[in-house]
Amino acid sequence: MFSKAFSAAVSGIDGIIVSVEADVSDGLPLFDLVGYLGSEVREARERVRISLKNSGFRLPPKRITINLSPADMRKEGTAFDLPIAVSILTAFGYIPQENLEETMIIGEVSLNGDIKKVNGVLPIVYTALKQGFTRCIVPESNAREGAVVQGIDVFGFETLQDVVRFLNNENYRDPTYINMEEILNQQDNIEELDFSDVTGQIAAKRAIEIAVSGMHNLLMVGPPGSGKTMLAKRIPTIMPELSFEESLEISKIYSVSGLLNNKDSLISKRPFRSPHHTITSAALTGGGRMPMPGEISLAHLGVLFLDEFPEFNRNTIEILRQPLEENEITISRLQGTYRYPCDFMLIAAMNPCSCGFYPDRNKCNCSINQVKRYLGKISKPLLDRIDISIECLQVNYKDLEARKLSETSSDIRKRVRIARDIQSNRYKNEKFYFNSQLTPKTISKYCKLEKEEYKILEDAFLKMDLSARAYHRILKVARTIADLDQSEIITKKHLCEAICYRSLDKKYWEE
């Protein structure tokens, strides 16, 4: 007898429908799995056979063949255990075939018949909805994660016997329900870090506000203890709240990575990722034998903070060049190509020399060659991709003692939101949303200058020996500064401030 159940595989952060076909026929007793399978799927033969036995299902000795289609796509992971078990039971007559119509089945089975948690349920359920399925059967520990997708019924089960009774209409239950509004508002109930905690550093705060408003990359240079890390950790608190679509996109990445739990089934806050400088290239960008998202993808629509920037392996951080331009990372393997989104805001922090105090010669004993060697760990092409560089000076005692209240994150976020709304309205007919995403063609359309401003920019280009990329990034930053002032045109004031944010390139890297 022939039967068919439906499951799905994950490619990148998207689901691909997989048909699990079972055929039971007379012949030498055999349990065979075919369909370009990874080792975990091939091992499902023993897990499923013993799980069926221990769940009380006695199968007569027959030739059982399972095919996972399409056969030209490699299947990895343990999520196919449950659909394989269900398709076998259907072929033996334990479950009517018509009860499997429009039903997606995902889950790993243990030897005693329990159903265990798997990764990637959220993108699979989302794909099932788009493909016209009406319900999904998932492990109980993944039920809330799957229920995030509205418009499809998600049922969570703990044992194989419960699934069989449900498919035989013997065990009615309501689909899992979660209050989406409550989850999205969780961030308002959590005590956060706040910019009012930061004393001094007025210039750095201004640069951060500009960077967040236009999603520009930022580099902070300063001595130890000047507050670079403290400032970076508070950047997500001035970024606008996530929309549901953004939360869903981030959550799909975390679901594939196995970082979602049944309680926090949806990411409701902007990601802030701060990997250690010993991180490998694969861990930063993604990859591995079974490709998984890296830190740049886990920081999607949030912040990737690289502290002690020059201490990272040079080959590792040079890999960031392409993702910073394309907002996407492509990983190619023999079995396929995987694409992960990585539209993140890069925040980097570093000391100006190995001891940390250059150019203060009262504290710094580094020679010019030592300073250049230290700074030379950051290549010019990578620096060109950083829109704003700011110097964080040592905070003096008077500022610490003054106890003067600074602006709160909420105050800054209001201005950021206004600037982003201006960009959203301006680019409503374009394929991008922020000033940092402007192309050379659209820069000439949206960043027009008067004759005096062009002269200023020309002088800066020649004196600072800027590249074409740096020239364009100055115009993008100037456009953001103008948006913060709610100005339709870029004035001399806006342009000069944007040029100042490239001055560190000249001060430190070319002295």
Highlighted features:
Rossmann fold; 5-stranded parallel beta sheet; 18 strands; Ribosomal Protein S5, domain 2; 511 residues; alpha/beta; Helicase, Ruva Protein, domain 3
3D structure, described in words:
38% of the residues lie in helices and 17% in strands. The chain contains 23 helices and 18 strands. The relative contact order is 0.10. Helix 8 (202-214) runs parallel beside helix 18 and helix 20 (451-463) packs parallel to helix 22. The model has no long low-confidence stretch (mean pLDDT 89). It is elongated and about 85 Å long. The protein has 511 residues and is α/β, with parallel strands linked by helices. It has 3 domains: 2-167, Ribosomal Protein S5, domain 2, CATH 3.30.230.10; 186-420, Rossmann fold, CATH 3.40.50.300; 438-505, Helicase, Ruva Protein, domain 3 (Orthogonal Bundle), CATH 1.10.8. The chain starts with a strand and ends with a helix. The longest helix is centred in the C-terminal third of the chain and has 18 residues, at 409-426. The strands form 6 sheets. A 5-stranded parallel beta sheet has the order 11-14-17-10-18, with helices on both faces. A 4-stranded mixed beta sheet has the order 1-2-4-3. A 3-stranded parallel beta sheet has the order 5-8-9, with helices on both faces.
Question: Quick summary of this structure?
Answer:
This protein is of the alpha/beta class and 511 residues long.
